[in-house]
Protein backbone atom coordinates (compact mmCIF):
# COMPACT_ATOMS: atom_id res chain seq x y z
CA UNK A 1 0.00 0.00 0.00
CA UNK A 2 2.75 2.39 0.91
CA UNK A 3 4.01 3.52 -2.43
CA UNK A 4 5.20 7.06 -2.77
CA UNK A 5 6.17 6.47 -6.34
CA UNK A 6 2.74 6.52 -7.93
CA UNK A 7 1.75 9.81 -9.54
CA UNK A 8 2.62 12.21 -6.78
CA UNK A 9 2.08 15.02 -9.15
CA UNK A 10 -1.22 15.96 -10.55
CA UNK A 11 -0.02 18.75 -12.76
CA UNK A 12 2.05 17.62 -15.75
CA UNK A 13 4.31 20.71 -15.71
CA UNK A 14 5.12 20.28 -12.05
CA UNK A 15 5.44 16.55 -12.55
CA UNK A 16 8.02 17.07 -15.28
CA UNK A 17 9.98 19.62 -13.30
CA UNK A 18 9.92 17.53 -10.15
CA UNK A 19 10.84 14.40 -12.05
CA UNK A 20 13.81 16.14 -13.64
CA UNK A 21 14.91 17.29 -10.23
CA UNK A 22 14.42 13.87 -8.76
CA UNK A 23 16.69 12.52 -11.48
CA UNK A 24 19.19 15.33 -10.91
CA UNK A 25 19.28 14.72 -7.18
CA UNK A 26 19.56 11.03 -7.83
CA UNK A 27 22.68 11.57 -9.90
CA UNK A 28 24.00 13.84 -7.16
CA UNK A 29 23.25 11.22 -4.56
CA UNK A 30 25.09 8.58 -6.52
CA UNK A 31 28.12 10.69 -7.13
CA UNK A 32 28.52 12.14 -3.65
CA UNK A 33 27.15 9.54 -1.34
CA UNK A 34 28.01 5.90 -1.47
CA UNK A 35 25.17 4.74 0.74
CA UNK A 36 22.78 5.61 -2.06
CA UNK A 37 23.66 2.35 -3.76
CA UNK A 38 22.93 0.01 -0.93
CA UNK A 39 20.45 1.96 1.19
CA UNK A 40 18.17 3.88 -1.13
CA UNK A 41 18.47 4.98 -4.70
CA UNK A 42 15.67 7.54 -4.87
CA UNK A 43 12.83 8.98 -2.82
CA UNK A 44 10.54 6.42 -4.46
CA UNK A 45 12.88 3.72 -3.30
CA UNK A 46 12.92 5.18 0.21
CA UNK A 47 9.15 5.08 0.36
CA UNK A 48 9.14 1.50 -0.80
CA UNK A 49 11.32 0.83 2.25
CA UNK A 50 8.33 1.64 4.39
CA UNK A 51 8.67 5.30 5.33
CA UNK A 52 5.35 6.99 5.65
CA UNK A 53 6.08 10.47 4.29
CA UNK A 54 3.50 10.29 1.53
CA UNK A 55 0.72 9.53 3.97
CA UNK A 56 0.95 13.20 4.87
CA UNK A 57 2.92 14.97 2.15
CA UNK A 58 2.70 15.51 -1.56
CA UNK A 59 5.32 17.29 -3.61
CA UNK A 60 3.09 20.06 -4.89
CA UNK A 61 0.07 20.16 -2.60
CA UNK A 62 -0.70 20.63 1.06
CA UNK A 63 -1.97 17.35 2.48
CA UNK A 64 -1.72 16.83 6.25
CA UNK A 65 1.67 18.49 6.15
CA UNK A 66 2.87 21.26 3.85
CA UNK A 67 3.69 20.61 0.18
CA UNK A 68 7.38 19.80 -0.01
CA UNK A 69 7.72 22.57 -2.59
CA UNK A 70 6.39 24.99 0.05
CA UNK A 71 9.01 23.75 2.52
CA UNK A 72 11.69 24.16 -0.16
CA UNK A 73 10.54 27.66 -1.08
CA UNK A 74 10.61 28.74 2.56
CA UNK A 75 14.21 27.65 3.11
CA UNK A 76 15.77 27.70 -0.34
CA UNK A 77 17.94 30.71 0.29
CA UNK A 78 19.60 28.85 3.12
CA UNK A 79 21.27 25.54 2.37
CA UNK A 80 22.39 25.30 5.99
CA UNK A 81 18.78 24.35 6.57
CA UNK A 82 19.61 20.80 5.48
CA UNK A 83 20.70 19.83 8.98
CA UNK A 84 17.73 21.65 10.52
CA UNK A 85 15.25 19.79 8.32
CA UNK A 86 17.01 16.45 8.72
CA UNK A 87 16.69 16.87 12.50
CA UNK A 88 13.02 17.77 12.12
CA UNK A 89 12.43 14.65 10.04
CA UNK A 90 14.03 12.46 12.70
CA UNK A 91 12.73 14.26 15.80
CA UNK A 92 9.32 15.40 14.54
CA UNK A 93 8.05 18.95 14.29
CA UNK A 94 5.19 21.19 15.26
CA UNK A 95 4.58 24.91 14.91
CA UNK A 96 6.69 25.68 11.84
CA UNK A 97 3.70 25.32 9.53
CA UNK A 98 0.73 24.90 11.83
CA UNK A 99 -0.75 23.10 14.79
CA UNK A 100 -0.75 19.58 13.36
CA UNK A 101 2.36 17.74 14.57
CA UNK A 102 4.66 15.72 12.37
CA UNK A 103 5.69 12.46 14.08
CA UNK A 104 9.33 11.59 14.75
CA UNK A 105 11.17 9.05 12.60
CA UNK A 106 13.73 7.82 15.10
CA UNK A 107 14.42 4.65 13.17
CA UNK A 108 15.70 6.64 10.18
CA UNK A 109 19.46 7.01 9.84
CA UNK A 110 20.93 10.51 9.86
CA UNK A 111 22.24 9.91 6.37
CA UNK A 112 18.84 9.05 5.01
CA UNK A 113 17.25 12.05 6.76
CA UNK A 114 19.94 14.30 5.29
CA UNK A 115 19.37 12.84 1.86
CA UNK A 116 15.63 13.45 2.14
CA UNK A 117 16.15 16.98 3.46
CA UNK A 118 18.43 17.75 0.50
CA UNK A 119 15.97 16.26 -1.90
CA UNK A 120 13.12 18.35 -0.44
CA UNK A 121 15.22 21.53 -0.58
CA UNK A 122 16.01 20.82 -4.23
CA UNK A 123 12.33 21.20 -5.10
CA UNK A 124 12.25 24.97 -4.59
CA UNK A 125 10.64 27.21 -7.14
CA UNK A 126 8.78 24.50 -8.95
CA UNK A 127 5.29 25.43 -7.78
CA UNK A 128 3.60 27.31 -10.57
CA UNK A 129 0.26 28.03 -12.15
CA UNK A 130 -3.13 28.93 -10.76
CA UNK A 131 -5.40 26.28 -9.27
CA UNK A 132 -7.26 24.49 -12.04
CA UNK A 133 -11.00 24.50 -12.56
CA UNK A 134 -13.04 21.91 -14.39
CA UNK A 135 -16.62 22.80 -15.28
CA UNK A 136 -19.24 20.10 -15.66
CA UNK A 137 -23.01 19.71 -15.68
CA UNK A 138 -24.27 17.82 -12.65
CA UNK A 139 -26.78 14.98 -12.92
CA UNK A 140 -29.56 17.44 -12.07
CA UNK A 141 -28.41 19.91 -14.73
CA UNK A 142 -26.48 22.44 -12.64
CA UNK A 143 -23.14 23.98 -13.66
CA UNK A 144 -20.57 22.82 -11.13
CA UNK A 145 -16.83 23.35 -10.81
CA UNK A 146 -14.42 20.65 -9.69
CA UNK A 147 -10.79 21.28 -8.77
CA UNK A 148 -9.70 18.15 -10.68
CA UNK A 149 -10.78 16.33 -13.83
CA UNK A 150 -13.67 13.91 -13.29
CA UNK A 151 -14.27 12.64 -16.83
CA UNK A 152 -12.27 11.80 -19.90
CA UNK A 153 -13.13 10.33 -23.27
CA UNK A 154 -12.15 6.81 -24.16
CA UNK A 155 -12.94 5.59 -27.69
CA UNK A 156 -15.80 8.05 -28.00
CA UNK A 157 -17.30 7.24 -24.60
CA UNK A 158 -17.30 9.42 -21.54
CA UNK A 159 -15.64 7.58 -18.67
CA UNK A 160 -14.37 8.72 -15.27
CA UNK A 161 -10.64 9.34 -14.80
CA UNK A 162 -8.39 6.64 -13.40
CA UNK A 163 -8.20 8.57 -10.11
CA UNK A 164 -11.98 8.79 -9.70
CA UNK A 165 -12.32 5.10 -10.47
CA UNK A 166 -9.51 4.26 -8.05
CA UNK A 167 -11.30 6.33 -5.43
CA UNK A 168 -14.55 4.48 -6.07
CA UNK A 169 -12.80 1.15 -5.55
CA UNK A 170 -10.92 2.24 -2.42
CA UNK A 171 -13.90 3.96 -0.88
CA UNK A 172 -16.09 0.90 -1.41
CA UNK A 173 -13.40 -1.36 0.01
CA UNK A 174 -12.37 0.56 3.11
CA UNK A 175 -14.79 3.36 3.97
CA UNK A 176 -18.21 2.01 3.01
CA UNK A 177 -18.78 -0.11 6.07
CA UNK A 178 -19.14 2.97 8.24
CA UNK A 179 -19.78 5.80 5.79
CA UNK A 180 -22.20 3.83 3.58
CA UNK A 181 -21.87 2.33 0.09
CA UNK A 182 -21.22 4.98 -2.59
CA UNK A 183 -20.71 7.65 0.07
CA UNK A 184 -24.35 8.04 1.05
CA UNK A 185 -23.66 8.06 4.79
CA UNK A 186 -24.00 5.28 7.34
CA UNK A 187 -25.64 4.56 10.62
CA UNK A 188 -22.47 5.18 12.62
CA UNK A 189 -20.53 7.65 10.53
CA UNK A 190 -21.33 10.86 8.70
CA UNK A 191 -22.26 11.29 5.05
CA UNK A 192 -18.93 12.55 3.72
CA UNK A 193 -20.69 14.35 0.84
CA UNK A 194 -22.41 16.51 3.46
CA UNK A 195 -19.12 17.13 5.25
CA UNK A 196 -17.71 18.56 2.00
CA UNK A 197 -20.93 20.44 1.16
CA UNK A 198 -20.82 22.02 4.60
CA UNK A 199 -17.41 23.47 3.86
CA UNK A 200 -14.90 20.84 4.98
CA UNK A 201 -11.71 21.67 3.04
CA UNK A 202 -9.54 19.11 1.33
CA UNK A 203 -6.89 19.72 3.98
CA UNK A 204 -9.41 19.02 6.76
CA UNK A 205 -10.61 15.89 4.94
CA UNK A 206 -7.02 14.66 4.75
CA UNK A 207 -6.27 15.45 8.39
CA UNK A 208 -9.45 13.69 9.61
CA UNK A 209 -8.79 10.67 7.37
CA UNK A 210 -5.08 10.25 8.05
CA UNK A 211 -5.22 10.95 11.80
CA UNK A 212 -8.59 9.32 12.46
CA UNK A 213 -10.64 10.06 15.56
CA UNK A 214 -10.08 6.97 17.61
CA UNK A 215 -12.38 8.02 20.47
CA UNK A 216 -15.24 8.23 17.95
CA UNK A 217 -14.43 4.99 16.13
CA UNK A 218 -12.84 6.57 13.07
CA UNK A 219 -9.61 4.71 12.24
CA UNK A 220 -6.55 6.66 11.03
CA UNK A 221 -5.34 5.73 7.55
CA UNK A 222 -1.80 7.16 7.68
CA UNK A 223 0.67 4.44 6.80
CA UNK A 224 -2.04 2.50 4.97
CA UNK A 225 -2.85 5.02 2.26
CA UNK A 226 -0.37 7.39 0.78
CA UNK A 227 -1.47 10.89 -0.17
CA UNK A 228 -2.23 9.96 -3.78
CA UNK A 229 -4.39 7.05 -2.78
CA UNK A 230 -6.33 9.15 -0.26
CA UNK A 231 -6.57 11.88 -2.89
CA UNK A 232 -8.40 9.42 -5.12
CA UNK A 233 -10.89 8.73 -2.33
CA UNK A 234 -11.28 12.47 -1.80
CA UNK A 235 -11.90 13.12 -5.50
CA UNK A 236 -14.43 10.32 -5.66
CA UNK A 237 -16.34 11.59 -2.63
CA UNK A 238 -16.19 15.18 -3.94
CA UNK A 239 -17.45 14.10 -7.38
CA UNK A 240 -20.34 12.38 -5.56
CA UNK A 241 -20.90 15.52 -3.45
CA UNK A 242 -21.02 17.62 -6.63
CA UNK A 243 -23.56 15.12 -7.98
CA UNK A 244 -21.46 14.40 -11.04
CA UNK A 245 -21.62 10.62 -10.75
CA UNK A 246 -24.54 8.44 -9.61
CA UNK A 247 -24.26 5.68 -7.00
CA UNK A 248 -22.74 2.46 -8.28
CA UNK A 249 -19.77 1.60 -10.43
CA UNK A 250 -18.90 4.49 -12.74
CA UNK A 251 -17.94 3.80 -16.38
CA UNK A 252 -14.16 3.50 -16.60
CA UNK A 253 -11.40 3.04 -19.13
CA UNK A 254 -11.19 -0.63 -18.21
CA UNK A 255 -14.79 -1.38 -19.30
C1 LIG B 1 1.44 12.01 10.13
C2 LIG B 1 1.76 13.00 9.14
C3 LIG B 1 3.19 13.20 8.66
C4 LIG B 1 4.10 12.24 8.26
C5 LIG B 1 3.92 10.75 8.26
C6 LIG B 1 5.26 12.96 7.79
N1 LIG B 1 5.08 14.31 7.94
FE1 LIG B 1 6.43 15.78 7.50
N2 LIG B 1 5.16 17.16 8.28
C7 LIG B 1 3.89 16.92 8.76
C8 LIG B 1 3.35 18.13 9.33
C9 LIG B 1 1.98 18.29 9.95
C10 LIG B 1 4.36 19.11 9.19
C11 LIG B 1 4.33 20.56 9.68
C12 LIG B 1 5.01 20.55 11.05
C13 LIG B 1 5.19 21.91 11.64
O1 LIG B 1 4.29 22.75 11.51
O2 LIG B 1 6.25 22.13 12.27
C14 LIG B 1 5.47 18.47 8.50
C15 LIG B 1 6.66 19.12 8.17
C16 LIG B 1 7.69 18.55 7.46
C17 LIG B 1 8.89 19.24 7.04
C18 LIG B 1 9.20 20.71 7.33
C19 LIG B 1 9.70 20.81 8.77
C20 LIG B 1 9.94 22.22 9.19
O3 LIG B 1 10.05 22.41 10.40
O4 LIG B 1 10.05 23.13 8.37
C21 LIG B 1 9.66 18.33 6.38
C22 LIG B 1 11.01 18.58 5.77
C23 LIG B 1 8.95 17.06 6.39
N3 LIG B 1 7.76 17.23 7.04
C24 LIG B 1 9.41 15.89 5.83
C25 LIG B 1 8.85 14.63 6.06
C26 LIG B 1 9.46 13.37 5.68
C27 LIG B 1 10.76 13.23 4.93
C28 LIG B 1 8.61 12.39 6.10
C29 LIG B 1 8.79 10.86 5.99
C30 LIG B 1 10.00 10.34 6.55
C31 LIG B 1 7.47 13.02 6.73
N4 LIG B 1 7.65 14.38 6.69
C32 LIG B 1 6.40 12.35 7.28
C33 LIG B 1 3.23 15.72 8.75
C34 LIG B 1 3.82 14.50 8.46
C1 LIG C 1 -14.96 1.79 11.51
C2 LIG C 1 -15.78 2.84 10.99
C3 LIG C 1 -15.14 3.82 10.01
C4 LIG C 1 -14.43 3.56 8.86
C5 LIG C 1 -14.06 2.21 8.27
C6 LIG C 1 -14.12 4.85 8.27
N1 LIG C 1 -14.62 5.85 9.05
FE1 LIG C 1 -14.42 7.86 8.71
N2 LIG C 1 -15.48 8.26 10.40
C7 LIG C 1 -16.03 7.32 11.25
C8 LIG C 1 -16.74 7.98 12.31
C9 LIG C 1 -17.50 7.32 13.44
C10 LIG C 1 -16.60 9.38 12.07
C11 LIG C 1 -17.15 10.52 12.90
C12 LIG C 1 -16.12 10.96 13.91
C13 LIG C 1 -16.60 12.14 14.69
O1 LIG C 1 -17.77 12.15 15.06
O2 LIG C 1 -15.80 13.04 14.91
C14 LIG C 1 -15.80 9.51 10.87
C15 LIG C 1 -15.41 10.72 10.32
C16 LIG C 1 -14.71 10.87 9.14
C17 LIG C 1 -14.34 12.14 8.55
C18 LIG C 1 -14.68 13.50 9.12
C19 LIG C 1 -16.08 13.88 8.72
C20 LIG C 1 -16.60 15.11 9.38
O3 LIG C 1 -17.63 15.62 8.90
O4 LIG C 1 -16.02 15.58 10.38
C21 LIG C 1 -13.68 11.87 7.38
C22 LIG C 1 -13.13 12.88 6.40
C23 LIG C 1 -13.63 10.43 7.26
N3 LIG C 1 -14.25 9.86 8.34
C24 LIG C 1 -13.04 9.77 6.18
C25 LIG C 1 -12.99 8.38 6.08
C26 LIG C 1 -12.38 7.71 4.95
C27 LIG C 1 -11.76 8.40 3.75
C28 LIG C 1 -12.49 6.37 5.19
C29 LIG C 1 -12.00 5.21 4.34
C30 LIG C 1 -10.62 5.29 3.92
C31 LIG C 1 -13.14 6.22 6.48
N4 LIG C 1 -13.44 7.45 6.99
C32 LIG C 1 -13.42 5.00 7.08
C33 LIG C 1 -15.92 5.95 11.12
C34 LIG C 1 -15.26 5.27 10.11
Would you give an account of this structure?
It is built from 11 helices and 4 strands. The protein has 255 residues and is mainly α. The protein has 2 domains: 12-121, Orthogonal Bundle (Cytochrome Bc1 Complex, Chain D, domain 2); 134-241, Cytochrome Bc1 Complex, Chain D, domain 2, CATH 1.10.760.10. The strands form 2 sheets. It has a two-stranded antiparallel ribbon with strand order 1-2. It has a two-stranded antiparallel ribbon with strand order 3-4. A hairpin with a 2-residue loop joins strand 3 and strand 4 (157-160). The protein starts with 11 loop residues before the first helix and ends in a 14-residue tail after the last helix. It binds heme C (2 copies). One heme C binds next to helix 8, helix 9 and helix 10. Residues 174-175, 177-179, 188-190, 192, 195, 200, 205, 208-209, 213, 216-219, 221, 233 line the site of one heme C.
**Pattern of helices and strands:** HHHHHHHEEEEHHHH
Bound molecules: heme C
CATH superfamily of the largest domain: Cytochrome c-like domain
Low-confidence stretches: 1-41
Distance between the termini: 24 Å
Mean pLDDT: 81
Number of domains: 2
**Total number of strands:** 4
What does the main sheet amount to?
2 strands, antiparallel
CATH topology of the largest domain: Cytochrome Bc1 Complex, Chain D, domain 2
Shape descriptor reads globular
The CATH architecture of the largest domain can be given as: Orthogonal Bundle
Number of helices: 11
Using the coordinates above, name the CATH class of the largest domain.
Mainly Alpha
Radius of gyration: 19 Å
- Tell me the β content: 5-15%
Order of the strands making up the biggest sheet? 1-2
Judged by helices, strands and strand pairing, the structural class is mainly alpha
Amino acid sequence: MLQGSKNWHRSPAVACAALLMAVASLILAFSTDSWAQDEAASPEHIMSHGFDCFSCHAIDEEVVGPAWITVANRYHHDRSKTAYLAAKIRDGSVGDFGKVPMPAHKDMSEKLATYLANYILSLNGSLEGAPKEYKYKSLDGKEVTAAFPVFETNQGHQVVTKDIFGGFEKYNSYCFRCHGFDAVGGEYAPDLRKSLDNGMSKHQFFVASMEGRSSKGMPGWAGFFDADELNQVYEYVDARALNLIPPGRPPSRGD
